[in-house]
UniProtKB/TrEMBL annotation:
InterPro entries listed in its UniProt record: GAG-pre-integrase_dom (IPR025724), Integrase_cat-core (IPR001584), Retrotran_Ty1/copia-like (IPR039537), RNaseH-like_sf (IPR012337), RNaseH_sf (IPR036397), SH3_retrovirus (IPR057670)
Molecular function terms from GO: nucleic acid binding
Every Integrase catalytic domain range: 97-263
Pfam families with a match to the protein in the record: gag_pre-integrs, SH3_retrovirus
Protein name: Integrase catalytic domain-containing protein
């Protein structure tokens, strides 16, 4: 029994000794099955802690301030509370920032997607420079490709920027350890730092970057109703755009500007005039690819910017071919897929049906001609 009290206006008034010392003695005098280890100055506090269902010791201090004379709530410990209420630790943002690019490269593997990209990719791997936050994305059909992609990326950094990666920071996924031999990292002088098991917060740079990339990718796909099987092209385009967007972290400087400040002579950072992702694009057909009576352009879907050519990347669902060209006319206010379909899925089926019907008619024509 905790005590006796009278009800007054819906509340119970517990009468007790007014003298603080008497309060302490009364609290300690009540019998309770407290372990012998607690039979000390803290026993009364622990007794009420057990009685009230293991509340926070700060709350107990509010209820019984006199019990906490010369006792700080922070030093009190309860094993039962640890077993029943244990939570994960805090992961404050690290104040340290590298002084130059490529001292630390953050990396993560995302996937698999529920829908494979039109290129057959199910995954993508990201590489983020700690100093400038410039990002590289590579699509993958298999997770086992991660090791080979990192080796190519490392060679590109050494060749284009005449520097070496010092630290390669990833999560604890087996993909890196299985596909990227430790001997290669040792030979390159690269320190591989991985997060603890099930602790993605320690790889927060890539986790936040992937979240940002997918938010932008979804936005540009929803805007023009682009089908889901172009998600990889949307992520690549989102990377291209984010690398060219100012950031408050860098005093509204873009990652591309930040990297060019350190390496002004690099030739791999180029920019094209931006266009609306997923809009209608007409790609010019050069004369040696058409006859005099054929159309001089082909209607395509704009899918971003080529990483290896100075041109726009377009795709024709009719011919099922990619076209990279600068000779493109854009209808930026016109989506290739109508807004009546759900992310273009219905329209994609209609385009495929039209292509099949056209093929069948052509085959029938040649069959009749041969007959």
């Amino acid at each position: 029994m905790i005590g006796k009290a009278k009800e007054c206006a819906g509340l119970y008034l517990l009468n007790g000794p007014n003298n603080p010392k008497e309060q302490v003695q009364a609290a300690r005098s009540v019998s309770s099955p407290i372990p012998p280890a607690l039979s000390n100055n803290n026993s009364a506090i622990m007794l009420w802690h057990y009685r009230l269902g293991h509340p926070n010791f700060q709350y107990l201090k509010k209820l019984f301030p006199t019990l906490f004379d010369n006792i700080k709530p922070e030093i009190l410990q309860c094993e039962v509370c640890q077993l029943s209420k244990h939570v994960r630790g805090n992961y404050p943002i690290q104040g340290y920032k590298t002084s130059h690019p490529f001292a630390i490269i953050h990396s993560d593997i995302w996937g698999p997607s529920r829908v494979n990209n039109i290129s057959g990719a199910w995954w993508f791997i990201s590489f983020i420079d700690d100093h400038t936050r410039i990002t590289w994305i590579y699509l993958m059909k298999e997770k086992s490709e991660a090791g080979a992609i990192f080796k190519n990326f490392n060679s590109m950094i050494q060749t284009q920027f005449q520097t070496k990666i010092k630290v390669f920071r990833t999560d604890n996924a087996k993909d890196y350890f299985n596909s990227l031999p430790g001997k290669y990292l040792m030979d390159q002088g690269i320190v591989h730092q991985s997060s603890c098991v099930d602790t993605t917060q320690q790889n927060g740079v890539t986790e936040r970057k992937n979240k940002h990339l997918l938010e932008v990718a979804r936005s540009i796909m929803f805007t023009t109703n682009v089908p889901k099987h172009f998600w990889g092209e949307a992520v690549l385009t989102a990377t291209y755009l984010i690398n060219r967007m100012p950031s408050r972290v860098f005093k509204f400087q873009t990652p591309c500007q930040a990297i060019l400040c350190s390496y002004p002579d690099t030739q791999i950072i180029s920019s094209l005039p931006l266009k609306v992702f997923g809009c209608t694009a007409f790609v010019h057909i050069h004369q040696h690819h058409r006859s005099k009576l054929d159309p001089k352009a082909i209607k395509c879907l704009f899918l971003g910017y080529s990483p290896t050519k100075k041109g726009y990347k377009c795709y024709s669902p009719i011919t099922r071919k990619f076209y990279t060209s600068m000779d493109v006319t854009f209808f930026e206010n016109q989506s290739y897929y109508p807004k009546t379909s759900i992310q273009g899925e219905n329209s994609a089926i209609q385009e495929c049906s039209f292509w099949l019907d056209t093929t069948l008619l052509t085959l029938q024509f040649f069959h009749m001609k041969l007959s």
